[in-house]
């Protein structure tokens, strides 16, 4: 089997058996291509590569001052590929077993304060209406922001929601996360009211929950890019002094939940994290905020 066949078989395995997303497949493919391009004419076959080849590659990436997270992601893809070659294609051993990667950088997530979050949530219905917009667009945008803060969704999960995924009797959402794993998350009362108001104004009864202005039913689902752009628009109308992405709203949801007494396991379930260690970073944010509050308020903190 040629190297190209090995890669094709691996990506097909990820797509069919692991149900990998398009983005994940693209990242894996990019990681493999990047190594091949770096090796150039010296690359003969994936099965001929040695641990020393990957040590040199690691050194080159570090010389380029790539972020540790980027380096680790590339090597995670390479390791996954070689694991496939060992278990499915008869390769004796992975040359990556001996490679020691740089430890991940611990960066605490950036989150909004409660007052900043409230300001952002109020903006869509306070701004002067855009004459080019349909009457229900501001209501839709308010519902989107409320839902981000209420349920901690990823932006990809939010735009994938259909009307049938929202149960207004039990006040819950059915969400399909990474690996198409299903979870049920609650909808807060403010988000519920915003959703109902939007659905009524936009006459959204089936199909995608969040729609755009396109009249073609097959093209009405709001895109990730559109959500990112509307968030930027509303952010510009506030006095919040830093960039806010949909993922930072997810960070804010998790941190505020812990600030107000939620246990870590519950937050893990709400976020759809496979590992508790992924959720634990928010405890560091909460402790840091507690320390800042203590330092600012206690007369003998200095």
From TrEMBL:
<dbReference type="GO" id="GO:0051301">
    <property type="term" value="P:cell division"/>
</dbReference>
<keyword id="KW-0238">DNA-binding</keyword>
<feature type="domain" description="Core-binding (CB)">
    <location>
        <begin position="1"/>
        <end position="86"/>
    </location>
</feature>
<dbReference type="InterPro" id="IPR004107">
    <property type="entry name" value="Integrase_SAM-like_N"/>
</dbReference>
<feature type="domain" description="Tyr recombinase">
    <location>
        <begin position="107"/>
        <end position="295"/>
    </location>
</feature>
<feature type="active site">
    <location>
        <position position="247"/>
    </location>
</feature>
<dbReference type="InterPro" id="IPR011010">
    <property type="entry name" value="DNA_brk_join_enz"/>
</dbReference>
<keyword id="KW-0233">DNA recombination</keyword>
<dbReference type="InterPro" id="IPR044068">
    <property type="entry name" value="CB"/>
</dbReference>
<dbReference type="Pfam" id="PF02899">
    <property type="entry name" value="Phage_int_SAM_1"/>
</dbReference>
<feature type="active site">
    <location>
        <position position="250"/>
    </location>
</feature>
<dbReference type="Pfam" id="PF00589">
    <property type="entry name" value="Phage_integrase"/>
</dbReference>
<comment type="function">
    <text>Site-specific tyrosine recombinase, which acts by catalyzing the cutting and rejoining of the recombining DNA molecules. The XerC-XerD complex is essential to convert dimers of the bacterial chromosome into monomers to permit their segregation at cell division. It also contributes to the segregational stability of plasmids.</text>
</comment>
<dbReference type="GO" id="GO:0007059">
    <property type="term" value="P:chromosome segregation"/>
</dbReference>
<dbReference type="GO" id="GO:0003677">
    <property type="term" value="F:DNA binding"/>
</dbReference>
<keyword id="KW-0963">Cytoplasm</keyword>
<comment type="similarity">
    <text>Belongs to the 'phage' integrase family. XerC subfamily.</text>
</comment>
<feature type="active site" description="O-(3'-phospho-DNA)-tyrosine intermediate">
    <location>
        <position position="282"/>
    </location>
</feature>
<feature type="active site">
    <location>
        <position position="154"/>
    </location>
</feature>
<dbReference type="InterPro" id="IPR013762">
    <property type="entry name" value="Integrase-like_cat_sf"/>
</dbReference>
<dbReference type="GO" id="GO:0006313">
    <property type="term" value="P:DNA transposition"/>
</dbReference>
<feature type="active site">
    <location>
        <position position="178"/>
    </location>
</feature>
<keyword id="KW-0229">DNA integration</keyword>
<dbReference type="GO" id="GO:0009037">
    <property type="term" value="F:tyrosine-based site-specific recombinase activity"/>
</dbReference>
<dbReference type="InterPro" id="IPR023009">
    <property type="entry name" value="Tyrosine_recombinase_XerC/XerD"/>
</dbReference>
<keyword id="KW-0159">Chromosome partition</keyword>
<protein>
    <recommendedName>
        <fullName>Tyrosine recombinase XerC</fullName>
    </recommendedName>
</protein>
<dbReference type="GO" id="GO:0005737">
    <property type="term" value="C:cytoplasm"/>
</dbReference>
<keyword id="KW-0131">Cell cycle</keyword>
<comment type="subunit">
    <text>Forms a cyclic heterotetrameric complex composed of two molecules of XerC and two molecules of XerD.</text>
</comment>
<dbReference type="InterPro" id="IPR002104">
    <property type="entry name" value="Integrase_catalytic"/>
</dbReference>
<feature type="active site">
    <location>
        <position position="273"/>
    </location>
</feature>
<dbReference type="InterPro" id="IPR010998">
    <property type="entry name" value="Integrase_recombinase_N"/>
</dbReference>
<dbReference type="InterPro" id="IPR050090">
    <property type="entry name" value="Tyrosine_recombinase_XerCD"/>
</dbReference>
<keyword id="KW-0132">Cell division</keyword>
């Amino acid at each position: 089997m040629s190297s190209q066949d090995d890669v094709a078989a691996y990506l097909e395995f990820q797509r069919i058996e692991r149900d990998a997303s398009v983005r994940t497949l693209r990242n894996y493919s990019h990681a493999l291509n990047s190594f091949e391009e770096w090796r150039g004419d010296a690359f003969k076959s994936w099965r001929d590569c040695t641990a020393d080849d990957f040590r040199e590659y690691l050194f080159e990436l570090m010389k380029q001052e790539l972020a540790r997270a980027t380096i680790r992601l590339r090597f995670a893809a390479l390791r996954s590929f070689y694991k496939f070659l060992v278990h499915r294609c008869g390769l004796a051993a992975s040359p990556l077993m001996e490679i020691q990667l740089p430890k991940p950088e611990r960066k605490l997530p950036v989150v909004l304060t409660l007052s900043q979050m409230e300001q952002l949530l109020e903006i869509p219905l306070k701004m002067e209406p855009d004459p080019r917009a349909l009457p229900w667009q501001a209501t839709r945008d308010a519902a989107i922001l409320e839902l981000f803060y209420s349920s901690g969704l990823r932006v990809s999960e939010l735009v994938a929601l259909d009307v049938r995924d929202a149960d207004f009797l039990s006040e819950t959402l059915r969400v399909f996360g990474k690996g198409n794993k299903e979870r049920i998350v609650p909808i807060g009362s403010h988000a519920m009211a915003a959703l109902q108001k939007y659905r009524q104004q936009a006459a959204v009864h089936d199909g995608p929950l969040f729609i755009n202005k396109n009249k073609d039913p097959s093209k009405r689902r709001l895109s990730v890019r559109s959500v990112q752009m509307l968030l930027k628009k509303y952010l510009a109308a506030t006095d919040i002094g830093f960039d806010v992405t949909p993922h930072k709203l997810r960070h804010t949801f998790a941190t505020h939940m812990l600030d107000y007494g939620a246990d870590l396991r519950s937050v893990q379930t709400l976020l759809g994290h496979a590992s508790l260690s992924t959720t634990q970073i928010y405890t560091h944010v909460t402790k840091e905020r507690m320390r800042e509050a203590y330092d600012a308020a206690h007369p003998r903190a200095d």
